[in-house]
């Protein structure tokens, strides 16, 4: 274990740790790093835990963490990350927990993007960012993902079936966003723990298909409090008949 936290480190030369091939834990949190140079973590084949939270990192480039085949925990929270390039987490074959909370991420590339092929990933925290939209294909090839937090973003729209490939998902946090309308009730009903509170729900015809499928058995149904239209302000959607949800 090496702890270099809470210093004023602003730059690490590529290969700085290359003579430590047996290193398992590296803590670099609370420094002044602005980026992750490709090659900084070269020859750390045994590294399991890498903590980079509370730095000033703005972007994660492709292949930033290449050859960290045993890495299980990567903490990049509380940085200034706005952009994650496709391939940023390439070949992190053992990664189980990825924390990107409290950054400035505005969007995630769908398709073969930032998170594709993280086959062992179980927890992904993207809370407290600037994300506005979740398109189809955002979360591809994440067969082990169980916990996904997107709370406290600025999400206004989630494309139908955006979470349909996450077959193992049992916790989904979407609270404290700007979501107005939601589809995909069938997928949500199979997720054990869903949080939808504090959004900008518009209880009109666009929510009628969702309301029609509500049975009262899913706890998240109680989270949807209407912010519009004005005559439904403050009402729970579960207390409104589907036929009354009109445009």
Automatic annotation (TrEMBL):
The keyword Cell inner membrane is annotated on this UniProt entry: no
Protein known as: LRRCT domain-containing protein
InterPro entries, per database record: Leu-rich_rpt, Leu-rich_rpt_typical-subtyp, LRR_dom_sf
Keywords: Leucine-rich repeat, Repeat
